[in-house]
Amino acid sequence: MALHECPVCGSEILIEEDACPKCGYRADEMNPESKSEQPEPASKPGRPKPSKNKKIIAAVIAIIAVVIIGGILWFGPNYLSSDEKSAVQNVTAQIDKIGEVTLNSAALINKADKDFNALNSKSQKHVENQSKLLQAKETLANLQISNVEEAIDKIGDVSLDSGAALSSIRQLYENLTPDQQPKITNYETLTDAEAQFATLFMDNTTSLINAIGKVTLNSEDAIKAAEDAFSKLNNDEQVKITNASVLTDARKTFNALKKEAADQFALLKPGKIVKSADWQLTYKDKSLTNALYPDNTDDAYKIYLAPDKQLFVDAVFTVKNLSSEALLLNTIVSEYKVTYDLKTYTAYKCFISAGDTIVPIIDTDTLDAKKTVTFHVSVAVPIAAKNTDLPIQIGLTILGEKHTINFR
């Protein structure tokens, strides 16, 4: 019997048979003459060839799997929580509020930009109008640059009145970002104007100092005008003011004159009146004595005698109660000190006298309404004060005012 081998499964087949009994390969394909033509292999033994429908189903399943996996890869990392969604909606709404961009839009743009940058990178991808924010920022930056350039172009001729305008333009420039500032095409015009103004202002300051002239009590306005001008100069400019020392000396001289005038006002001389709403005191005289009540040496009057080896420095006033009710006498004097031989004595006592009577004042003593008495304030000092020429000065506070009595 003539046999040949099945090209698919390798089984021996009678040449007269139409098909391989094992794998079903067609007999007309088993012609030995066609062995050189390699047929497409069929399914392996035991595995029937997949049908066309099964292939389609497999392809659909693969596509669905790709879509699902892609969705997981995209939506997983980009899924927003409720808080994140709310934040995105808020930023989106703020960007929409910007509207047409003007110089007054800065606050809205900056707020929207700040809140956008506060979002995490995942949330930022969900802000659909982000490009609108970027465009608004760019438009605002260009408007701000143009605004500064226009302000510089309006400077014109520089004078002493240009200071406020130049300061305003300088502030506009400083408010620009480091990226904006180099884009100001006429910046040199601003710096030239500032230099010109500085020169004018320094010259004016020098003139104001020279205008002070001889310092008197009426020089305060002129000195203050020069000081105000000088204080507005920077350190480098102040160094260039050649007569700055004249201004310093003028202030010192004026302060000394003012103090002298104040001291003169506070200096009590006989006949000077010190007055308040309730009291009127008239300074009468001063004395250096060992007895406030010299006409009586009885033991009962020892309180009016100075301690051993001491003298009273006594200031005498006429006191009148101006009010409509009795007033406490111990409210008149709150300080009394005597300076002698570089020492200060402060243990003072107050007395009142009327006619031949003199009595010490105690806390409860009053003076009736509209009444007048003689009022003494005394401090004991060493008895040597009587026989020397050393200065004696009284400092006292009466009715809340500080005064001075030059005893000698």
SSE inventory with pairings:
Elements: E1 3-5, E2 12-14, H1 52-78, H2 82-98, H3 106-118, H4 121-124, H5 130-153, H6 163-175, H7 187-210, H8 220-231, H9 235-239, H10 244-266, E3 273-275, E4 279-289, E5 310-321, E6 327-328, E7 333-340, E8 343-345, E9 348-354, E10 357-360, E11 366-367, E12 372-382, E13 392-398, E14 401-406
Antiparallel strand pairs: 1-2, 3-4, 4-5, 5-12, 6-11, 7-8, 7-13, 9-10, 9-12, 13-14
Task: Explain what you see.
The chain has 408 residues and is an alpha+beta fold. 40% of the residues lie in helices and 20% in strands. It is built from ten helices and 14 strands. The protein has helices spanning 52-78, 82-98, 106-118, 121-124, 130-153, 163-175, 187-210, 220-231, 235-239, 244-266; strands at 3-5, 12-14, 273-275, 279-289, 310-321, 327-328, 333-340, 343-345, 348-354, 357-360, 366-367, 372-382, 392-398, 401-406. The strands form four sheets. It has a six-stranded antiparallel β-sheet with strand order 3-4-5-12-9-10, with no helix packed on it. A hairpin with a 6-residue loop joins strand 1 and strand 2 (12-14). The model is unreliable at 34-38 (pLDDT under 50).
Global morphology: elongated
Helix content, binned percent: 25-40%
**Content-based structural category:** alpha+beta
Strand order of the largest sheet: 3-4-5-12-9-10
Number of strands: 14
Can you summarize the main beta sheet?
6 strands, antiparallel
Tell me, rounded to a whole number, the average pLDDT.
Answer: 86
Question: What letter string, H or E per element, gives the SSE order?
Answer: EEHHHHHHHHHHEEEEEEEEEEEE
The separation of the N and C termini measures 169 Å
- DSSP strand content: 15-25%
Q: What's the number of helices?
A: 10
- Ranges where pLDDT stays below 50 over 5 or more residues in a row are 34-38
Radius of gyration: 55 Å
